């Protein structure tokens, strides 16, 4: 009895082995093709995010074609396989609506390009995620935070929230506010701030520098200034200016008061 099925079992076993070998060879070829496509797109000076997205898309399409070809080698009719794939696609589409939304979001990001690899972005409306864009793939975008953490965000989310692209422009306006005592000389404080801005190596003298009284607060007079700096020097300039303000105000006797509350007791 078993001997009657032995040729069929042997034939099926050979097909399985051949299918495994074909999948291994196909996977190797796909990896080579994807690598070649990525290099070609990079050499063409295409945006890095677009290159990553297209590479991911090519990889998925090639794997689908590989599985399709291996299945037909088992004797599965192409029409039946196409119908099966169509049904499976509808089922998976209903089950993986979020995944399809991420895919569509990736296409939107590719089309409108609100950011590119290397930009520093802030994702508003979520948990305040922010970082440098490291990868833009078919369904997800990876950010690298300032403390070297990988933040993976679905493209569907990115296409439906407000994104602040901090590094989209070559220059940024820097604004700092500081409180001084009501007893302090306001004009003297303004002169000190103007000197600080003029002497700082990162402030752009070809752009407007403004020093102003921003608010008469409860415990202090809020002084402020606005100045333009190169985007890649923003934080270095901000930290240095804050330190310089404190040092110069201390040197010239401009008090930076603590918040205080006057209590009057009526007898």
UniProtKB/TrEMBL annotation:
Belongs to the MscS (TC 1.A.23) family. InterPro entries: LSM_dom_sf (IPR010920), MS_channel_C (IPR049278), MscS_archaea/bacteria_type (IPR045275), MscS_beta-dom_sf (IPR023408), MscS_channel_2nd (IPR006685), MscS_channel_C_sf (IPR011066), MscS_channel_CS (IPR006686), MscS_channel_TM-2 (IPR011014). It is a multi-pass membrane protein. Keywords: Cell membrane, Membrane, Transmembrane, Transmembrane helix. Residues 175-256 form the Mechanosensitive ion channel MscS C-terminal domain. GO terms for molecular function: mechanosensitive monoatomic ion channel activity. Its main location: membrane. One of its GO terms (cellular component) is plasma membrane. Residues 100-167 form the Mechanosensitive ion channel MscS domain. The keyword Cell inner membrane does not apply. SUPFAM superfamilies: Mechanosensitive channel protein MscS (YggB), C-terminal domain, Mechanosensitive channel protein MscS (YggB), transmembrane region, Sm-like ribonucleoproteins. It comes from Blautia fusiformis. This is Mechanosensitive ion channel family protein. The chain crosses the membrane at residues 12-34, 46-68, 80-103. It is found in: Cell membrane. PROSITE patterns: UPF0003. Pfam families: MS_channel_2nd, MS_channel_3rd.
């Amino acid at each position: 009895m078993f001997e009657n099925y032995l040729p069929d079992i042997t034939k099926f076993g050979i097909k399985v082995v051949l299918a495994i070998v074909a999948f291994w060879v196909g996977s190797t070829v796909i990896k080579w093709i994807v690598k070649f496509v990525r290099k070609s797109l990079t050499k063409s000076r295409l945006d890095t995010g677009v290159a990553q997205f297209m590479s991911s898309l090519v990889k998925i399409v090639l794997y689908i074609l590989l599985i399709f070809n291996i299945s037909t080698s088992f004797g599965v009719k192409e029409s039946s396989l196409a119908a099966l794939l169509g049904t499976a696609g509808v089922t998976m589409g209903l089950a993986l609506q979020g995944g399809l939304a991420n895919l569509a979001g990736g296409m939107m990001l590719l089309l409108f390009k609100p950011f590119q690899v290397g930009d520093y972005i802030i994702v508003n409306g979520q948990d305040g995620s922010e970082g440098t864009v490291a990868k833009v793939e078919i369904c997800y975008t990876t950010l690298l935070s300032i403390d070297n953490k990988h933040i993976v965000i679905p493209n569907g989310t990115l296409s439906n929230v407000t994104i602040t692209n901090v590094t989209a422009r070559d220059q940024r306006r820097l604004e700092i506010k500081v409180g001084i005592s009501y007893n302090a000389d306001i004009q003297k404080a303004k002169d000190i701030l103007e000197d600080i801005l003029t002497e700082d190596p990162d402030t752009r003298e070809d752009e407007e520098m403004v020093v102003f009284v921003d608010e008469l607060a409860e415990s202090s007079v809020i002084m402020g200034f606005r100045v333009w700096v190169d985007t890649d020097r923003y934080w270095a300039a901000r930290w240095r200016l804050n330190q310089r303000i404190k040092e110069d105000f201390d040197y010239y006797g401009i008090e930076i008061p603590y918040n205080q509350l006057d209590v009057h007791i009526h007898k």
